[in-house]
Amino acid sequence: MTETASAAVPVAVCQFAPTSSREGNRDRIAELTADAAARGARLIVFPEYSSYFVDPMDESLAANAESLDGDFGSTLTALAADHGVVIVAGLVETASDAQHVHNTVVAVRGDGMLASYRKQHLYDAFGQTESDWIEAGDLGAATFELAGIRFGLMTCYDLRFPEVSRTLIDAGADALVVPAEWVRGPLKEHHWTTLLAARAIENTAYVIAADHPTPIGVGHSQIVDPQGVVLAGVGTTEGIAVAAVERATIERVRAVNPSLRVRRYAVGPR
């Protein structure tokens, strides 16, 4: 077996409840990062809006937005260096005007930023209007590589749009990383878990998803394998789940089910 074929990355999803305290959120991320790293994780994934969160959303989002190299990014970089890991987390990022922010996901290593992704599909659904406060990101795929495995970034509501995950797969992703604040409501837990499995199965890829716990989110952060099997997960409270993303598993599943190779349609912007 080649080195690439034997590649494996232990990953962790850290389910926690970000608040309106930016310092408090950074402190909690530091605690969870240390715990996940001690369990062997090399990639540690936190939820959407990890840097700052209020429910309902209001003008304080813009007042607490940061640049990519602000306090939040600097803290993640230092934590990644201290523990020898890559950290993915949601950042409330400054936007093009003073009234809006970007809902951004960053992937950070000890020597700096690996990738960043600004949420493309805003949550204007189920009675919510995220676009009142958030500026959508430009179209495109954001990926990074760790130990021979390529990870693609998407955010929460993007999960309902299979084109997003397929675009990441076309960009070479082996695993989809999904920080979320999956808003609670009737059947929402069912939608969340069903869509995580669907994105894994249809793309023959791992899905690594970190949500807020209840009562804000639905919880159930999960690591799902390319056949839609949940390898590890968290319930509805704060917690950490760890599992390995394995190149050999991806190759085995895609050999048995070569759906990506035999498909007859490509994905393009609308």
Percent range for β-strand residues: 25-35%
What is the tally of beta strands? 12
Rounded Rg = 17 Å
* Tally of domains: 1
Which spans of ≥5 residues are poorly predicted at pLDDT below 50? none
Instruction: Describe the strand arrangement of the main beta sheet, using strand numbers.
Output: 5-4-3-2-1-12
Secondary-structure map:
Layout: E1 8-15, H1 22-38, E2 43-45, H2 60-63, H3 71-83, E3 86-94, E4 101-109, E5 112-118, E6 143-146, E7 149-153, H4 162-170, E8 175-179, H5 188-203, E9 206-210, E10 222-224, E11 230-233, E12 239-246, H6 247-256, H7 259-262
Parallel strand pairs: 1-2, 2-3, 7-8, 8-9
Antiparallel strand pairs: 1-12, 3-4, 4-5, 6-7, 9-10, 10-11
Please describe the structure with a list of short key phrases separated by commas or semicolons.
270 residues, alpha/beta, Nitrilase/N-carbamoyl-D-aminoacid amidohydrolase, 6-stranded mixed β-sheet, 12 strands
Task: Describe this protein's structure.
It is a single chain. The strands form two sheets. The protein has a six-stranded mixed beta sheet. Strands 6-7-8-9-10-11 form a six-stranded mixed beta sheet, with helices on one face. It has helices spanning 22-38, 60-63, 71-83, 162-170, 188-203, 247-256, 259-262; strands at residues 8-15, 43-45, 86-94, 101-109, 112-118, 143-146, 149-153, 175-179, 206-210, 222-224, 230-233, 239-246. It starts with 7 loop residues before the first strand and ends in an 8-residue tail after the last helix. Helices cover 27% and strands 26% of the residues. With 270 residues, it is an alpha/beta fold. The longest helix has 17 residues, at 22-38. It is built from seven helices and twelve strands. The model has no long low-confidence stretch (mean pLDDT 96). Helix 1 packs parallel to helix 3.
